[in-house]
Structure prediction request, 203 residues.
Amino acid sequence: MQELLTDDEVVALCGATQSSWPLPLLTVATDDRAVTAAAFRGLRALLVRRLATAGDGAHPAIEPGLAAIVTRAAAATRIVVAHVSSAERAGWAGAGVAAFLDDKGLILDVVNATGIHGLQTADQAEAAHRVAAFVQSRFEPAADVTLSPDGCILLAASGQEQVYRVRPGLVERGTVIATTAAFEVSDVADPMAVETFLARVLR
Prediction:
C-alpha cells in the first residue's frame, strides 16, 4: 500500500519519530524557522487525515504502519536516488525517485514536482524498474516538456563516487564537486550503463 504524504507531513512525522529525513524536501527550506513551520502544518494535516492523534498533547500518536515506513526510510543504510536537477549545478530541482535500503528490504519514494511523496515497500526488481523508467523518460528526446532546457536527471547512490547525468539522448558519468555542486564529466556512457548501475547498487 502506498502512503501519500506532503513534504510538511514528512517533516512532522520525522519530528514525531525523532528521525531526520535524509534527502532535500522541495517545498521546505532548511532553516529552523521553515522546518518548525512545516512541522506544525504537517502535524495539523496528519490530524485532519486521522493519520495521527493528539496523544498526550506533547507527543502525537502516529499511525503505527506510517511511523514504521518513515522511520525505516530515514534510517536507511543505503540510498539510491534519481532526480531532476540543473545540468550545471547539482541539486534537487523537481520530481524524483528514491530507494531506501535496510536489512529488512527496501522503501520506495516517488516524489512529484510539488513535494508529494508516494512511499511504499518494494522489492529490488520494482525499485530498479521505477528508477530506470524515470531516468528513461528524460533520456528520450522531447519526452518531458516540463524539463527546462538546462535540466537533467542525476542518478546517484550512497557510497558511490560515480554519478550519472542524463539529458535527452545523452548519458554521462562523472562526479559532483562538493564545494561548488558542479558536475565534472569523466566520460559518455552507454544508456544500458544505467540499468547495470541500478542492478549493482540495489542488491
